[in-house]
Write a structure and sequence with these properties.
This protein is an alpha+beta fold and about 350 residues long. The chain is built from 11 helices and 13 strands.
Length: about 350
């Protein structure tokens, strides 16, 4: 952690976030839920989807872009399927409701697929895939991103999002979570670089007119985020967009509203969560024991020159969580100043006042 970055206890950030949402008109239980999920993103290393988003969320609340008190409804369409209407609530509330619904249905049917419409940005995808994994299930989550920053292969027009995919699997070491954007980096990472005044490496973003690399994150509106794996990444983003967007009656393609630029309108964001009960295939103890063997084999495999350790999905997540619970969540000065402005504008205690 650099000298100008502060390690702030998670509890202080969580209380700040909850107080801000409450001051903005959200009921206390909902505010606490959103705060918990946002800070979990920071704890697990998804900095671009945690407390860094607070100012933006508050701006949308003030402008009417979010429903402060959504009436989230669940329609069970079959024994193992359901559709959640988020009533334009903030995505953390909507998707956590969908995930709980999926787990309940999966306990009865063995598997459940829950689609979501009229939702919003929900933060880090891995959080929702990890929830079923903590209950002995496999979780798969995907979303239509809340803005289009990628083009189909060969196109110069951004009609696809960073459409994330996350998969959570239970193991004896906790949830093994794989969380990826279908672009080389998420747009939240671009926003983080802009806030920190850092240049991006070539290969993340290219100009939509010249195809040349863009390395200044403040010029991101002029560019296209590049997909992982070339045409395979844009194809995956397309398919996830169909499953999370079109299938649910949610926004996709030209219908997607850029929530970074538009604060007043609902985005009709679509997501889906799948929960699969491991015990329907083998006893949980046997599954975890098998995972131990396979993960051990992968970690002990011979390494290429210059590689000091083999990193598997979830390793960094677990390391970050342990480190940040111990040392605090690293917040750069620019973010602390932004959070202070938000807190003062809402009449709630700043981080410094909470730590005094």
């Amino acid at each position: 952690m650099s000298d100008d970055v502060r390690g702030v206890p998670a509890a202080a950030i969580r209380s700040l976030v909850a107080d801000c949402f409450s001051a903005a008109g959200m009921v206390a239980d909902d505010a606490a839920c959103v705060a918990e999920l946002m800070v979990e993103a920071d704890l697990t290393g998804a900095d671009g989807h945690g407390v860094m988003r607070l100012a933006h969320y508050m701006r949308r609340f003030k402008a009417g872009g979010f429903n402060r008190a959504p009436n989230i409804s669940v329609t069970q369409t079959a024994p193992a399927t359901a559709l959640v209407d988020g009533d334009n609530g903030i995505g953390h509330l909507v998707v956590s409701r969908a995930t709980r619904t999926a787990m309940t249905l999966a306990r009865a049917a063995g598997v459940a697929w829950v689609g979501v419409r009229r939702s919003n940005h929900a933060g880090a995808a891995g959080i929702y895939a990890a929830m079923p994994a903590a209950e002995g299930m496999i979780g798969i989550y995907a979303a239509v991103a809340s803005a289009n920053h990628m083009a189909a292969s060969g196109s110069a027009e951004p009609l696809l999002g960073t459409n994330p995919l996350a998969i959570g699997v239970p193991t004896n070491d906790g949830a093994m979570v794989f969380d990826m954007a279908t672009t080389i980096v998420s747009y939240g990472t671009i926003k983080k670089y802009a806030m920190q005044g850092r240049a991006m490496p070539p290969g993340w973003l290219v100009s939509a007119t010249t195809g040349e690399p863009i390395t200044d994150p403040k010029q991101s509106a002029e560019g296209l985020l590049l997909p992982v794996g070339g045409y395979k990444g844009s194809g995956l983003a397309l398919m996830l967009g169909v499953l999370a967007g079109v299938l649910n009656g949610a926004a996709f393609g030209r219908a997607v509203i850029d929530f970074n630029a538009e604060d007043k309108r609902g985005t009709n964001t679509g997501q889906f969560i799948l929960a699969l009960d491991v015990a329907r295939f083998m006893p949980m103890e046997g599954f975890r024991a098998a995972m131990d063997v396979h993960l051990g084999d992968l970690r002990a495999a011979s390494r290429l020159p210059g590689v000091d350790a083999i990193r598997l999905p979830g390793d960094r997540r677990r390391y970050c969580r342990a480190e940040r619970l111990r040392d605090g969540v690293p917040l750069p000065p620019a973010l602390v100043a932004q959070l202070d402005d938000v807190a003062q504008g809402l009449g709630v205690k700043t981080l410094a006042q909470r730590l005094a």
